[in-house]
């Protein structure tokens, strides 16, 4: 694979991160290397930007970094737009500080632009984009590649160890860890890359937004997106907020992490980093560097690395190997069969979508979980496990349960629409087969709320969490099916 890369990228230390989506010679008439970011919204330690710089330096061309945001991706809301625009604003600043040109476009009624990446690509020597295995990022990358006339390279920025170096066909997590753990150290180092060319100042086929100078909240209020899902007060947008969260996690959470991480009643028990990791405002390399540099005990660091690298990167690896990681057919065959065999079992408490969305079902513990998603845009890991298992009994069929769990997670959680979303939900719908056959679940193990209820004050905590007042959000007539799973989303 590395042999197929052009000069510069071929010798880059991180070349195994790069996949050739469209082969060919970079266009010598190109004005720049186009670096198109969808989700890795950070200016430094970003392999997509670094690869673009390495290629640009080899070609004697500057890099143009582009990030755009549209109204029509599934679940577009005030919550997601606000978080993404805050990250993009700081990305712009960071790129400028690195000597790189940056262009942003927020698509809106008075500023419609069609096919911008394609049009920018027409002036580029090559396109470097992100290798993301889920959601619109994957679909858009495929689409741009199909239309491109220049070479297209996809770069993995989400993982510390790029999935490609692990080889194909790893089936279980223990096999994955055997391959992954020995390789971590070599990927912790980064050389960065500095542009040798002055920043691009030439023409663009559109007028970019200057996010620093516009009132993005006012702009977002006018967009055709879901305004019923409010901006999240807990996870603030932008690079400074991400750095604060990382400092807090390392200083206050990590020293007791192995003991506190599974206790949902502890506000300081888990790191709270997943929204920033999902949108790439933080990368795993800098998070691990901060963890390694801390004075926290070895067992806490090991536990954290197991979550961030051992679990997160396992789900990324799985997603890269699947054609559609978001679909129910990824769930283990034995689990699909046993759930299907019990699909007609009576479900004593089928809940409406309204009750599910607002956390107003007959299950107090489930409501406590759901209200974290709705209010905080995030949910504690142990609550997520109970939450996902219970949905199987609250909906009419296993397929409806899958669609509902993905919908709630994707729409409400800042870290949703991620390889970890679908991988974890698939794990909750399967896991280790139980010896006992139960109604509704068959041989899929069930899970109670004991890991929270049995904590000191757990009953009180759950009751208070379930009683939180929530905003009324829009309720569709049925759980929407993601358009990119069934065909072409709007162009
Ligand atoms: C049903 C279900 C759905 C989930 N949906 C998502 C999702 O949409 N997006 C998402 O990022 N994570 C998801 N997770 C994984 C996990 O719950 C969250 O990553 C974690 O709760 C985020 O909180 P934190 O940042 O405080 O993590 P911590 O517990 O402090 O862990 C540190 C980091 O390790 C990673 N991590 C931790 N646990 C897991 C895990 N089980 N799988 C993968 N990575 C993990 C995350 O990047 C996290 O930020 C889901 C888990 C379950 C059981």
Architecture (CATH level 2) name of the largest domain: 3-Layer(aba) Sandwich
CATH topology of the largest domain: Rossmann fold
Distance between the termini: 32 Å
The CATH superfamily of the largest domain bears the name: HUPs
**Associated small molecules:** flavin-adenine dinucleotide
Number of helices: 21
Task: Assign an overall shape.
Answer: globular
Q: Please bin the fraction of helical residues.
A: 40-55%
Question: Could you list the spans in which at least 5 consecutive residues all have pLDDT below 50?
Answer: none
Mean pLDDT: 95
What fraction of residues sit in β-strands?
A: 5-15%
Keywords, separated by commas or semicolons:
Serine Threonine Protein Phosphatase 5, Tetratricopeptide repeat; 491 residues; DNA Cyclobutane Dipyrimidine Photolyase, subunit A, domain 3; single chain; binds flavin-adenine dinucleotide; 21 helices; 43% helix; 7% strand; 3 domains; Rossmann fold; 6-stranded mixed β-sheet; alpha/beta
Structure write-up:
This protein is α/β, with parallel strands linked by helices. It has three domains: 156 residues, 3-Layer(aba) Sandwich (Rossmann fold); 83 residues, Serine Threonine Protein Phosphatase 5, Tetratricopeptide repeat, CATH 1.25.40; 152 residues, DNA Cyclobutane Dipyrimidine Photolyase, subunit A, domain 3 (Orthogonal Bundle), CATH 1.10.579. Helices cover 43% and strands 7% of the residues. It is built from 21 helices and six strands. The chain has a six-stranded mixed sheet, sandwiched between helices. Strand 2, helix 1 and strand 3 form a beta-alpha-beta unit. Helix 15 crosses helix 16. The chain starts with 17 loop residues before the first strand and ends in a 5-residue tail after the last helix. The relative contact order is 0.12. Bound molecules: flavin-adenine dinucleotide. Flavin-adenine dinucleotide binds next to helix 10, helix 12, helix 16 and helix 18.
């Amino acid at each position: 694979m590395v042999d197929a890369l052009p000069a510069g990228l071929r010798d880059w230390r991180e070349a195994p991160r790069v996949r050739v989506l469209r082969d060919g010679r970079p266009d010598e008439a190109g004005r720049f290397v186009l670096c198109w970011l969808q989700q890795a919204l950070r200016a430094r330690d970003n392999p997509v930007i670094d690869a673009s710089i390495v290629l640009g330096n080899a070609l004697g061309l500057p890099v143009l970094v582009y990030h755009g945001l549209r109204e029509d991706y599934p679940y577009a809301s005030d919550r997601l737009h606000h978080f993404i625009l805050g990250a993009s604003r700081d990305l712009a600043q960071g790129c400028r500080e690195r000597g790189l040109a940056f262009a942003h476009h927020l698509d809106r009624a008075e500023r419609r632009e069609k096919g911008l990446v394609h049009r920018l690509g027409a002036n580029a020597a090559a396109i470097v984009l992100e290798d993301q295995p889920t959601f619109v990022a994957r679909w858009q990358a495929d689409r741009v590649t199909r239309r491109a006339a220049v070479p297209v390279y996809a770069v993995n920025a989400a993982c510390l160890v790029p999935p490609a170096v692990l080889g194909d066909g790893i089936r279980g997590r223990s096999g994955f860890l055997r391959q992954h753990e020995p390789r971590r150290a070599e990927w912790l180092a980064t050389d960065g890359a500095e542009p040798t060319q002055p920043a691009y100042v030439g023409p663009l086929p559109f007028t970019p937004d200057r996010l620093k100078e516009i009132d993005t909240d006012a702009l977002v209020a006018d967009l055709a997106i879901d305004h019923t899902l409010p901006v999240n007060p807990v996870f603030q947008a932008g690079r400074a907020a991400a750095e604060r969260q990382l400092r807090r996690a390392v200083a206050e959470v990590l020293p007791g992490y192995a003991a506190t991480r599974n206790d949902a009643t502890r506000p300081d028990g888990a790191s709270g980093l997943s929204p920033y990791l999902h949108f790439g405002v933080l990368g795993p390399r800098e998070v691990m560097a901060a963890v390694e540099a801390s004075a926290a005990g070895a067992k806490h660091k090991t536990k954290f690395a197991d979550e961030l690298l051992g679990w997160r990167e396992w789900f990324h690896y799985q997603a890269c190997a699947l054609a559609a990681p978001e679909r129910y057919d990824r769930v283990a065959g034995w689990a699909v069969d046993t759930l299907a065999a019990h699909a007609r079992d009576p479900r004593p408490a089928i809940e409406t979508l309204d009750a599910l969305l607002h956390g107003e079902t007959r299950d107090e513990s489930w409501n406590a979980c759901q209200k974290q998603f709705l209010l905080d845009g995030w949910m504690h890991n142990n609550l997520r496990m109970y939450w996902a298992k219970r949905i199987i009994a609250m909906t009419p069929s296993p397929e409806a349960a899958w669609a509902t769990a993905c919908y709630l997670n994707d729409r409400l959680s800042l870290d949703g629409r991620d390889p970890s979303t679908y991988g974890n939900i698939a794990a909750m719908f399967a896991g280790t087969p139980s010896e006992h056959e139960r109604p509704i679940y068959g041989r899929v193990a069930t899970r109670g709320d004991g890991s929270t209820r049995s904590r000191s004050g757990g009953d009180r905590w759950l009751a208070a969490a379930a009683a939180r007042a929530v905003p009324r959000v829009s309720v569709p007539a049925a759980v929407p099916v993601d358009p990119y799973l069934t065909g072409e989303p709007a162009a």
